[in-house]
Amino acid sequence: xxxxxxxxxxxxxxxxxxxxxxxxxxxxxxxxxxxxxxxxxxxxxxxxxxxxxxxxxxxxxxxxxxxxxxxxxxxxxxxxxxxxxxxxxxxxxxxxxxxxxxxxxxxxxxxxxxxxxxxxxxxxxxxxxxxxxxxxxxxxxxxxxxxxxxxxxxxxxxxxxxxxxxxxxxxxxxxxxxxxxxxxxxxxxxxxxxxxxxxxxxxxxxxxxxxxxxxxxxxxxxxxxxxxxxx
Length: 231
Description:
Elements lengths: L21 H12 L8 H27 L6 H34 L3 H24 L2 H4 L2 H6 L1 H26 L5 H19 L3 H16 L12
Helix pairs in contact: 2-3, 2-7, 2-9, 3-4, 3-9, 4-7
């Protein structure tokens, strides 16, 4: 499938994105260069969207660390991160799973219990995101009590979604290819493409990843070497 939706288009990365410094843009573009024009399957597509989720979990981790240590934490990066969770992960990525994957596992009578738990976690995750969005609003963030209460829903979200994404990547997605035909699998990729274009435009994925990079840069965690262990 030579599909523009499943191609990494570096040229479209900066469209609609503000606040990205030239140095950060150059670094980010260089990291994406080798992946340019690479096609991915529907399952791989869902997995790379998990990459967006995992990077936001790191943003939440940094926010939790700062809140626990009584360090400065601006509200906007957290509100922006939760906004991406709501629009890209919950309203788009998880809806794909709920509309296209979970019903097929139920019809095939395969991994039904797993799909049921994953769906329940989607529902709980949306409740947690509601709380993060409310408590990271600029007005609420002025209250010391509400500011520190923000750590708990983020902590619960990180705790739940690390195992959630790992189980989907290692169990659900690999098994999915076995229960659909090649024709249906290809048509599903087209449906994924259509929905992403409707919600996020032609370069939705790359723009979302760039928005995440902007938040990481704001919080000082964009540089990957920052996470290198020192023995």
